[in-house]
Design brief:
Blueprint: H1 10-18, H2 40-51, E1 79-81, H3 88-93, H4 103-125, H5 134-159, H6 183-200, H7 213-226, H8 230-241, E2 268-272, H9 283-289, E3 293-295, H10 297-302, H11 309-313, E4 314-316, E5 345-347, E6 368-372, H12 373-386, H13 393-403, H14 418-428, H15 435-441, H16 445-448, H17 472-477
Antiparallel strand pairs: 1-3, 2-6, 4-5
Helix pairs in contact: 1-2, 2-4, 2-5, 4-5, 5-6, 5-7, 6-7, 7-8, 7-12, 8-12, 12-13, 12-14
């Protein structure tokens, strides 16, 4: 099956653009599709539209854009940004309120509901395709359900209660009187979608950019952990980890997962895929040359002595570096577009270390990894520990498998503690956009974030709240029906 690319048929482009704002009446127009849904090929093309919003730069990367999803790390204690791209710097510092128009606050709401609308459009119409083989029907429906669950999980983690829509919207929808659905009910629907997806999707390795059964299993574990359903999370994770036909495995080169060895990589369970020369993004330029995002000293201190993942994830002074006249990392001889800040480090993970891409003359097309097997193993270890099963040998083995992959080979842990598990997640998954959600679900963000400096003066961040505000534009449309999240009243 071919890579998912931006080449999506005109009908799907119209559907996506027509759903530009979930709660805007004009966006609820149900496009006429009387001449569509005639063949498997048309259904496949429509399915690609369900993936489309994952290709926004704030969710992964995009051609012609000046940022990418790595900026989410700046909201955690792993990274800081010196750029004002999409207002991540404002949220990082905690200088925002209910009227903020920062991209993460406004665009995540919009993009996720656009994705949900496309999934609902597909699910409403796929039954119309004549003579569709059962295996194809179930696979495609499973992908759409997985994606709807993915978008909704992002929403409830960021905003809490959100309007739940499981049907195709149209002009007759009573959208202006729709209440925000309690988070617990939305989570129930997310898990229902994922259970169906797990039953429908093929149990094969992830290769083509299309979700597979393992993608849905791992996402279900993430959702269960987010909602402190630890025993269920452990059981779900083990259903794949302990299976004889588990198609996933740790890759033998940690750095290759993110650049150079992504094709048919058995560790990657879900990603947003790109393919140059026509389908690319600017990650190398933004992270490598413009240098808009940087590791924190606190993340650097989290690595144990001798952990090789440090040198595969972070540039430090004196490291080989193509952006300097002496080929060594540091500001003194740098000709990179950006300035290296007080932390005196830069992000290496994902970056092609052999080229100078400061001008954007070359293109980046590595895939943005959204879920991988090491994450599943660590989620399993955490779920086992938090459900009172931390002494189970399977839990400790899962964590040690990650630590002792070929090329890492850190000493085995002999016991599990909460601190050990959380620190292992931090260093293993650094710069993968997961740390902020981890701090939120562990309910320690209000302790951790205010201890992090964001400039040379030592100014500390402020932690505003565990939820984002509902975008002001949406609150205005609802004409007093909705109450803003409590922290922003």
């Amino acid at each position: 099956m071919k890579y998912i690319t931006l080449t999506i048929i005109t009908l799907i482009s119209l559907v996506v653009s027509g759903c530009s704002d979930f709660l805007d009446k004009e966006s609820l127009t149900n496009p006429s599709a009387s001449a569509y849904w005639r063949t498997k090929g048309e259904a496949e093309s429509a399915l690609l539209g369900c993936y489309y919003k994952l290709r926004e730069p704030i969710m992964s990367g995009a051609k012609g854009q000046s940022g990418n999803s790595l900026f989410w790390e700046a909201l955690s204690d792993n990274a800081l940004t010196t750029s004002n791209w999409e207002g991540f710097d404002v949220i990082m510092k905690g200088d925002f309120d209910a009227s903020s128009t920062a991209g993460p606050i406004t665009k995540m709401w919009t993009f996720c509901f656009q994705g949900i609308a496309q999934c609902n459009f597909f699910l409403k119409n796929v039954d119309r395709v004549p003579n569709l083989e059962k295996a194809d029907y179930e696979r495609m429906k499973g992908e759409a359900l997985f994606l709807r669950a993915y978008y909704y999980n992002e929403l409830v983690q960021l905003y809490g209660a959100v309007p739940l829509s499981l049907e195709l919207e149209n002009l007759d929808s009573n959208y202006q009187n729709r209440e925000r659905t309690p988070k617990e009910k939305v989570v129930t629907e997310i898990l229902r979608d994922l259970d169906t997806a797990i039953g429908y999707l093929p149990n094969v390795a992830y290769t083509s950019g299309h979700a597979v059964q393992g993608s849905a299993v791992a996402l279900k574990v993430r959702v269960l952990l987010n909602n402190e359903r630890y025993e269920e999370a452990a059981e779900t994770a083990w259903s794949l980890i302990g299976a004889d036909n588990n198609p996933f495995a740790l890759h033998n080169n940690y750095a290759g997962i993110f650049f150079g060895e992504q094709s048919d990589n058995k560790e990657i369970m879900f990603s947003v895929q790109f393919k140059a020369p026509d389908d690319y993004h600017s990650l190398d330029q933004v992270i490598g040359g413009r240098m808009a995002l940087f590791p924190t000293k606190e993340l650097r201190a989290a690595y144990e002595p001798g952990d090789p993942r440090l040198k595969m994830s972070i540039f430090e002074e004196g490291d080989p570096w193509v952006y300097s006249t002496d080929n060594k990392f540091g500001q003194e001889h740098s000709f990179a577009e950006g300035q290296i800040p007080f932390v005196k480090m830069a992000i290496k993970k994902y970056v092609n270390t052999s080229i100078n891409n400061a001008s954007g003359a070359t293109t980046s097309d590595q895939h943005f990894v959204m879920i991988r097997y090491a994450d599943l193993l660590l989620m399993y270890a955490e779920a086992m520990y938090e459900s009172g099963q931390g002494s189970d040998v399977r839990a400790l083995k899962a964590l040690n498998e990650v630590r002792q992959r070929e090329g890492v080979m850190m000493p085995e842990r002999t016991e599990l503690t909460r601190e050990i598990i959380r620190n292992e997640r931090r260093v293993e998954l650094a710069f993968e956009g997961l740390r902020y959600n981890d701090l939120i679900r562990w309910k320690i963000a209000d302790e951790v974030i205010p201890a992090i400096s964001y400039d040379t003066k030592g100014n500390k961040r402020k932690f505003r709240a565990y939820l984002f505000p509902i975008p002001l534009s949406e609150m205005d449309k609802m004409q007093g029906l909705w109450e803003q999240n409590q922290e922003y009243l």
